[in-house]
Amino acid sequence: MIEIHDVSVVYPGADGPAxxxxxxxxxxxxxxxxxxxxxxxxxxxxxxxxxxxxPSSGSVRVDGMGTTDEDQVxxxxxxxxxxxxxxxxxxxxxxxxxxxxxxxxxxxxxxxELRRRVDxxxxxxxxxxxxxxxxxxxxxxxxxxxxxxxxxxxxxAYLVLDEPTAMLDAVGREDxxxxxxxxxxxxxxxxxxxxxxxxxxxxDRLVVLSEGALVHEGAPASLLDDPGLALELGIELxxxxxxxxxxxxxxxxxxxGALDASAVLEALWA
Amino acid sequence: xxLSARSLGYxxxxxxxxxxxxxxxxxxxxxxxxxxxxxxxxxxxxxxxxxxxxxLLEPTTGAISADGAPVSGRQxxxxxxxxxxxxxxxxxxxxxxxxxxxxxxxxxxxxPSVMAxxxxxxxxxxxxxxxxxxxxxLSGxxxxxxxxxxxxxxxxPYLxxxxxxxxxxxxxxADVRGVIARERTRAGVVVVTHDPxxxxxxxxxxxxxxxxxxxxxxxxxxxxxxxxxxESVGLRLPEIVLVQLHARERGLPVAPITLDxxxxxxxxxxxxxxxx
Lengths: 270, 276
Known about the structure:
- The complex is a heterodimer of chains A (270) and B (276).
- Chain A has a single domain (2-220), classed as P-loop containing nucleotide triphosphate hydrolases (Rossmann fold).
- The model of chain A has no long low-confidence stretch (mean pLDDT 91).
- Chain A contains 10 helices and 10 strands.
- Chain A is globular and about 60 Å long.
- Chain A has 270 residues and is α/β, with parallel strands linked by helices.
- In chain A, helix 3 (96-106) packs across helix 4 and helix 4 (111-124) packs across helix 5 (140-152).
- Chain B is of the alpha/beta class and 276 residues long.
- Chain B contains 10 helices and 10 strands.
- Chain B has a 6-stranded mixed β-sheet, sandwiched between helices. In chain B, strands 2-1-4-5 form a 4-stranded antiparallel β-sheet, with helices on one face.
- In chain B, strand 1 and strand 2 form a beta hairpin.
- The A-B interface holds A 36-39, 85, 139-141, 163, 166-167, 169-172, 174, 195, 234-236, 239-240, 242-243, 246-247, 250-252, 259-261, 264-265, 268-269 and B 41-43, 139-141, 166-172, 194-195, 197, 234-236, 238-240, 242-243, 246-247, 250, 259, 261-262, 264-266, 268-269, 272.
């Protein structure tokens, strides 16, 4: 369990806190979507989860280990993988498999085990066959999947993803989301930061931040079926969610959270 | 008149054994008051086209003219301004005003600060409030608008923007769309995007590229009617468009195709109430 308890963060020289008395947990295998406008504290909250950033007050614990305990930092970082918005910022290897091996090799994982982990991580993100490809020759979506493989090679229990689809085109985005669905099925817990609600409609829970405070927490339906609340929180409903809400209001039973055309068409002809 | 490209092509490393053709056979026209979208997947040649139009690359084939005069390479400076993707990552000055004034100052403009103030107003940022701030302490949407102001300060009659809303939240994207809507009343605007939905309602024409070649060029609104052209670009047709196309096949008189859920919901709900 990642347990964030009553955390505030004040950056040096800032006018106000970046986060203010936020509590949040991510259970093993649970997927939590974290939404909010630019500057609301999403990335700050994400960076707390694996001790990239320490709270000014309050506590963050990962499977019982406190992030302020220096002896536990590496154990925490191997439990919680981190994927950034721009994969270019986290790719270090000269070929794909080297990049994936970087984390576990640094932790002293033995050779045979390293090979197994790298192959498994590359397979998990669908890049098998591209092991020797130079990262700059990969597409943007492939680069982001490579960054995810790098995190997976540490065999983390949790992944924290900071807007992993923000820079991708529709195809790259769908490929990354498909990888995340497979990881979820494999039991990886996730905190998925995004400002696109469509990325996290299947999450177990959604959390909304605004100006450093947690302003909403609930099932995805709590936003998808309540356009007024979404608007109030500054969350843009996906076009298909807005269509679904309007059709439900007119008595057509489109399932909440169904964002594909086929669900709407089925409801229409039901 | 306008900014016009004919039979434009570009090969990286032309004449060497590393030559890679990035663009071929592209025609594009934009007049003052027009918004033209260029779309395609990553690697389709969109950004190469923009760099050619901005004079940052010399075309391998074809020609570019602005208001009747040939422009390529340095001749484009002052006539064509470009806003790069994530351009706020190029901020370097200590204040917003200095950063925006950098371009006109470099071109030897008589009063770069005044031009910078005008540009900030044009993007909806009050110079009295934002001028002295550090460009590194702005929100995402503010930073992007300051970056756009840096291009506007050059006073060029043509404005090119590469993925101008990437990474912004809903409010930031709406602010940037507002800036583009205002600028096009004065300038000819070309927006490169892999998400044409964002701008389609406002665009006059659309050019879709695949592997460096045009696969669709024409009225932006007609693109969705041409499902095969859209999908051949490698883009996914929006689900709400698929709903309307399928409904049409079933006999529902929806026209024109729209991305706005309100009229679609009304049309579908009204139609369903009629017993068939």
